[in-house]
Known about the structure:
Blueprint: E1 2-11, E2 14-24, E3 29-33, H1 40-47, E4 55-60, E5 63-64, H2 70-76, E6 78-81, H3 93-100, H4 110-120, H5 122-126, H6 137-149, E7 155-159, H7 167-184, E8 187-191, H8 195-201, E9 204-209, E10 212-218, H9 219-223, H10 226-233
Amino acid sequence: MLKIENLNVNYGAIKAVRGISLEVKEKSIVTLIGANGAGKTTTLRTISGLLKPVSGKIFFEGQDITNMSPDKIVELGICQSPEGRMIFSNLTVKENLEMGAYTRKDKEHIKYDLEFVFAFFPRLKERINQLGGTLSGGEQQMLAISRALMSKPKLLLLDEPSLGIAPLLVKTIFEKIVALNKSTGITILLVEQNANLALHNADYGYVLETGEITLQGESKILSENEDIKKAYLGK
């Protein structure tokens, strides 16, 4: 579904991503793990069109999207739930969700999809008229994921969904992510600092270190790798 070939991305003089190549198969959950500054978020932002690469190619369903604008990429079926959630704090839960559907042409189906995300995250329905900025961190994360879902993505990019959230809610959110993948077939590319959590829930993983992919493989195999255990799993 998604294919990246020899991608290089700079922040000014800093080489943030250095010649990475990866694939995300349809209906799978793939994770990028690595320390802060490894290039994980940069990779997602480049896929979304928010950053432009120095070189390399990004293909989605066989189409070259390397230099496509972010709105066109969303219309093709790629949407991101960003690091730090970045919800509209002065809008209600319902208004945030409606903003997620902004690019859609099938306006009559938006009401159906609202009910779908409310079924997935019932807490959001309870707070439908509450301002986004008054929600807890976990509720804001649910809202950020749901807002992305309202664009009807084929590929959902999740950037650090566990960041700054109480452990109990983290468990709930990851259960929902896996259920979403299994029940709808939405493909997920997950960036997550909690490598143990990411590898436990993903099918395949890539390890990023200073902008380069140093390891890749099935998540179960990666989670048993001694170097990864020492570096990321605290074992």
